[in-house]
TrEMBL record:
Coiled coil: none annotated. Residues 1-23 form the signal peptide. This is Extracellular solute-binding protein. Transmembrane segments: none annotated. Residues 436-502 form the DUF3502 domain. InterPro entries: Bact_solute-bd_prot1, DUF3502, SBP. It comes from Paenibacillus sedimenti. PROSITE patterns: PROKAR_LIPOPROTEIN.
């Protein structure tokens, strides 16, 4: 199980198919809590250590100053210094696997889906460490979140999540909408109409650049008919669930009409020049460059980093969000996290690593991590809210090492409806538990099929989802190459799911 050579195909397969895929009370500032970390007297006896940590992306603005303050606080409590290694998004999956397989000396690693690394025995089980050192880790996460993210009954990575659904939103150029005399968008039909108005009256800008197929495929179809409860399986490779019935479907034997309608509409948008001609290559980063009137993001509202980048690229530009979600919706949640922080088995500082993560889940420390220095980078805007200081913004990265819904604040400068949506999605009591909650698929029995389907998915299915390919013709070609592999995966997935559901009834 721990030999990488025997898991090579599995790691490659799962990494490929999950690549696009691609929540308390705190102690006083700088002081370890009595239950979560060693007491102050014990802390004084700790030997100084440097924790090496891998994060995705680039360092945020003002990072060196925030890191300095983090280390100042840590010097009087945990005696920890930080060696934070930022890996560009384009390289992080590959470099993470290289680091893990070569036993590089990392103490904490961000992972967006740790299943393959858990299967390979690369991450340390954390239950005992969290029980001893992780009081704040536990108190800032709901029982549903902690339980749903275990693998074979054990927690191998701390789940980092503030959302109990996987939100996404359309982000719109507000200045263009107002310039064209279009009223605020209230429905998907109005959004489509706005895109066509942009095409007609502002031809210098692309009406719509979606952030890849993940936003305009099953997720969009599901939001246009929430009662259908559609959800993708294995990153949009033609397998999906619906109706919370414990069954997995494939698009060739059971094409849901919502999906087909969505494929056809996207193709019309592409033919009409609404969706970018290079939709297979372009992502939502183009929006901040001023290249698109509409894009999509995994979030509610418009993030500070997107707003800042857009205003810098296009003076006078402004962005706003439109979501298909409604707080009155009755939705289910698997309570699966979208991000995790894990301790590699090779770490020589496992206890201190978990003490540090626990320290980050104390309110004053979390505020520093997430929003920067109070009074310089942000201001308190009331319970659960903050206001970024525009002259010195700090777009923190709590999603990669501390994210939780009890301490995370909402940007008070966002629209009232966006704040309401964010509060709604952060309360686990607003959602029923999905039948798939706690289920983890082991792809090793069909690893070859998963790898082949991943390649075929990118080549033949993504062009259908993004509207580049006529649906019926494209699906015929996709079926010819993908059906056999898809069916084998479906059967194995259903077999494992049935066994999991049966075990819950005992």
């Amino acid at each position: 199980m721990k030999k990488l050579s025997s898991k090579g195909t599995l790691l490659l397969a799962v990494s490929l198919i999950l690549a696009g895929t691609l929540a308390g009370c705190g102690s006083k500032q700088g002081e370890p809590s009595e239950t979560g970390t060693p007491a102050a007297s014990a802390a004084a006896k700790l030997n100084p250590v440097t924790l090496k940590i891998m994060f995705p992306g680039d360092p945020p603005a003002n990072w060196s100053e925030v890191k300095g303050e983090l280390e100042t606080r840590l010097s009087s409590s945990l005696h920890v210094k930080l060696n934070v290694v930022f890996i560009p998004w384009a390289d992080v999956l590959q470099k993470r696997q290289v680091a893990l397989s070569s036993a590089e000396d990392y103490d904490l690693i961000w992972d967006n889906n740790p299943v393959q690394n858990i299967a390979a025995g690369l991450y340390e089980p954390l239950d005992a460490l969290i029980e001893k050192y992780g009081a704040e880790i536990k108190s800032t996460r709901s029982p549903q979140l902690l339980e749903a993210n275990k693998v074979n009954g054990k927690l191998y990575a701390v789940p980092l999540e503030v959302n109990f659904i996987r939100p996404w939103t359309f982000v719109i150029r507000k200045d263009i909408r107002e310039k064209l005399g279009v009223a605020p968008i209230k429905s998907y039909d109005e959004l489509i109409k706005f895109m066509y108005t942009v095409k007609e009256k502002a031809p210098e800008i692309t009406p719509f650049i979606p952030n890849g197929s993940e936003h305009v495929g099953v997720r969009l179809a599901s939001m246009l008919d929430p009662k259908a409860n559609l959800a993708p399986v294995l990153n949009y490779a033609g397998l999906y669930t619906k109706g919370n019935d414990g069954k997995v479907y494939n698009i060739f034997d059971d094409m849901d009409p919502n999906l087909m309608k969505n494929f056809e509409q996207n193709h019309k948008l592409y033919k009409d020049g609404i969706i970018a001609k290079d939709a297979l290559l372009l992502k939502n980063a183009e929006f901040a460059k001023g290249k698109a009137a509409v894009t999509t993001f995994f979030d509610f509202g418009v993030s500070l980093s997107t707003r800042t980048a857009l205003e810098k690229s296009v003076p006078g530009a402004a962005a706003e969000a439109f979501s298909l979600y409604d707080p009155n919706m009755k939705l289910s949640s698997t309570f699966k996290a979208g991000n995790y922080i894990a301790v590699p088995v090779v770490s020589k500082n496992k206890e201190r690593a978990i003490q540090f993560v626990n320290w980050l889940n104390q309110k004053e420390n979390y505020d520093l991590l997430a929003y920067g220095i109070k009074g310089k980078n942000w201001e308190d805007a009331g319970e659960g809210l903050y206001k970024p200081i525009k002259e010195s913004p700090y777009a923190g990265i709590p999603f990669a090492w501390g994210w939780n819904s009890k301490l995370d604040r909402i940007d008070a400068s966002m629209a009232e409806d966006v704040i309401k949506l964010n509060k709604w999605q952060r309360d686990p009591n607003n959602f029923t538990t999905d039948i798939l909650s706690g289920f983890t698929f082991d792809p090793s029995p069909v690893s070859n099929e998963v790898a082949q389907l991943s390649n075929t998915n990118k080549e033949l299915f993504e062009p259908i989802i993004l509207g580049v390919q006529e649906p019926k013709e494209g699906l015929a070609r996709f079926k010819e190459k993908a059906y056999a592999n898809m069916k084998k995966i479906q059967v194995e997935y259903q077999k494992q799911l049935d066994a999991y559901l049966a075990s819950k009834k005992k």
